[in-house]
């Protein structure tokens, strides 16, 4: 079994100390920094904009994995890329032309990800495979941290894993929402290669980050 990438979601960090928190997870062995961008319209919560991403950029050399939960998303891609986003993941529901959006992300020099909500079917993936670096399966409905993992989504991960392997597609298969020390191994067994975790990484404060990350890696 391969060791998954751990992508702590800073949504669960102390927002009064964001720079410190990003440095702390970087030193604790995180692979990517997952940044949840919410607009209070596509999802019922408001979080981080490009200026905050830009301010955080000097605090870590790790890839910034920016999960865009905003609609429309297209007008903001350039700003997030300029602010330091390395991976930008979008929901099909956040714009009329997903294919164009994914191409635009790559044209900007970032890796392109598509995010599937719990109710979003996987059938549409077939037509965007050539334009994808990452597929993110949401194991909660997006909008908030600290929700419970929806077990059904393991079947979605498994199905996508089979499809990727069948054609040798190199996309990263990421899971986001409610990932913890009780279910991480199920995500890995289903074929996920990257796991987002907010609550499970930040619980216990900075002295726990390294051991929390190690646990999720199965080490
Ligand atoms: O995209 C998200 C919510 O929309 C977050 O990345 C996710 O909820 C992570 O937090 P937790 O691990 O606490 O569930
Ligand atoms: Fe997320």
Automatic annotation (TrEMBL):
Keywords: Carbohydrate metabolism, Cobalt, Isomerase, Manganese, Metal-binding, Zinc. One of its GO terms (cellular component) is cytoplasm. SUPFAM superfamilies: Ribulose-phoshate binding barrel. GO terms for biological process: pentose catabolic process; pentose-phosphate shunt. InterPro entries: Aldolase_TIM, Ribul_P_3_epim, Ribul_P_3_epim-like, RibuloseP-bd_barrel. Its EC number is 5.1.3.1. Coiled coil: none annotated. The keyword Manganese applies. Binds 1 divalent metal cation per subunit. Gene3D superfamilies: Aldolase class I. One of its GO terms (molecular function) is metal ion binding. The active site is at 36 (proton acceptor), 176 (proton donor). Substrate binds at residues 9, 67, 143-146, 176-178, 198-199. Pathway: Carbohydrate degradation. CDD domains: RPE (cd00429). It holds the Pfam family Ribul_P_3_epim. Belongs to the ribulose-phosphate 3-epimerase family. NCBIfam families: PRK05581.1-4 (NF004076), rpe (TIGR01163). Catalyzes the reversible epimerization of D-ribulose 5-phosphate to D-xylulose 5-phosphate. This is Ribulose-phosphate 3-epimerase. The gene is rpe.
């Amino acid at each position: 079994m391969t060791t998954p990438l751990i992508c702590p979601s800073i949504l669960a960090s102390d927002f009064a100390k964001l720079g410190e928190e990003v440095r702390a997870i970087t030193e604790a062995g995180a692979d990517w920094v997952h940044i949840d961008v919410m607009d209070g319209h596509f999802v019922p919560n408001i979080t981080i904009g490009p200026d905050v991403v830009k301010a955080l950029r000097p605090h870590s050399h790790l890839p910034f994995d920016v999960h865009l939960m905003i609609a429309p998303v297209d007008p903001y891609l350039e700003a997030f890329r300029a602010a330091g986003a390395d991976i930008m993941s979008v929901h099909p529901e956040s714009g009329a032309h997903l294919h164009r959006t994914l191409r635009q992300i790559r044209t900007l020099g970032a890796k392109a990800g598509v995010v599937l909500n719990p109710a979003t079917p996987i059938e549409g993936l077939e037509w965007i495979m050539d334009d994808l670096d990452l597929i993110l399966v949401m194991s909660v409905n997006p909008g908030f941290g600290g929700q419970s993992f929806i077990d059904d989504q393991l079947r979605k991960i498994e199905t996508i894993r089979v499809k990727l392997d069948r054609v040798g597609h190199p996309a990263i298969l990421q899971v986001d929402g409610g990932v913890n020390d009780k279910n991480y191994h199920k995500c890995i067994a289903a074929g996920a290669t990257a796991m987002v975790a907010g609550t499970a990484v930040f619980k216990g404060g900075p002295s726990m980050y390294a051991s929390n990350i190690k646990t999720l890696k199965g080490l």
